C-alpha cells in the first residue's frame, strides 16, 4: 500500500517533465496529522511538499476501485502553492467533471484518466483556505462506465499538515493569513 501510495504521489504531485527524475527513496514522510500525512521531496533540482488523505467514506455501485487520494501540494521552484489533486481509483468518464465541495466553496474539477484538478490557481487557493475551516470535503465523480461515486474526506489534521509543509516549502508562510 505504501509503495502504491508513493507512486501515485510521484505521478500526480509533480509536473510531467520532472516525473522521470524523482527517486521515491528521496520522498520523506514529515508526519501524521490526524487524518492527513505530510511529505517532502527535495533534491538539487526540485522541491515538492504535499499533504494527502484517503476518504473516510466512499460510495457507488462500482465493482472494483483502486486507492483514492486527496492531495494538496507546493512546488516553490515553479511558484505553485496549494495545488489540489484528486486521484479517483478509477478512470473518469471522458470530458466529465468532479463536483467538489468544502464548506461554502463549490468547484467543478476537470478530469483526465483517473485524476481531477481545479481549473485554476485561484480556485486551488479558495479550496485550501476553506479546508482550513471545514470539517469535511466531498467529491462526486463519474466512472468511465457511467457509475456515480461519492467520497467524503475528513479535514481533521489538515491545518497542522499544511503548517508543516508551509515551513518547508512556502516562504513566507502566509497560508493562514
Tell me what the structure shows.
This protein is α+β, with helices and mostly antiparallel strands and 177 residues long. The chain has one domain (2-169): Sandwich (Immunoglobulin-like). The protein contains four helices and eleven strands; from the N terminus they run ααβββββββββαββα. The chain has helices spanning 2-13, 16-19, 121-133, 158-169; strands at residues 27-33, 36-42, 47-53, 57-60, 69-75, 80-87, 97-102, 105-112, 115-117, 136-142, 148-154. An eleven-stranded antiparallel sheet has the order 1-2-3-5-6-9-8-7-10-11-4, with helices on both faces. Strand 2 and strand 3 form a beta hairpin. The protein starts with a helix and ends in an 8-residue tail after the last helix. Residues 1-21 and 173-177 have low confidence and may be disordered.
Amino acid at each position: 500500500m505504501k509503495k502504491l501510495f508513493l507512486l501515485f504521489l510521484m505521478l500526480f504531485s509533480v509536473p510531467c517533465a520532472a516525473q522521470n527524475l524523482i527517486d521515491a527513496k528521496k520522498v520523506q514522510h514529515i508526519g501524521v496529522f490526524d487524518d492527513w500525512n505530510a511529505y517532502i521531496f527535495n533534491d538539487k533540482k526540485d522541491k515538492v511538499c504535499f499533504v494527502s488523505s484517503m476518504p473516510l467514506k466512499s460510495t457507488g455501485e462500482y465493482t472494483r476501485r483502486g486507492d483514492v487520494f486527496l492531495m494538496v501540494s507546493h512546488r516553490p521552484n515553479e511558484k505553485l502553492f496549494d495545488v489540489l489533486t484528486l486521484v479517483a481509483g478509477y478512470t473518469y468518464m471522458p470530458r466529465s467533471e468532479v463536483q467538489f465541495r468544502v464548506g461554502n466553496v463549490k468547484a467543478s474539477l476537470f478530469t483526465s484518466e483517473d485524476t481531477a484538478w481545479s481549473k485554476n490557481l485561484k480556485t486551488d487557493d479558495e479550496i485550501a483556505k476553506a479546508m482550513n475551516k471545514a470539517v469535511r470535503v466531498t467529491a462526486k465523480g463519474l466512472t468511465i462506465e457511467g457509475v456515480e461515486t461519492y467520497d467524503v474526506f475528513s479535514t481533521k489534521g489538515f491545518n497542522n499538515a499544511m503548517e508543516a509543509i508551509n515551513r518547508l516549502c512556502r516562504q513566507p508562510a502566509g497560508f493562514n493569513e
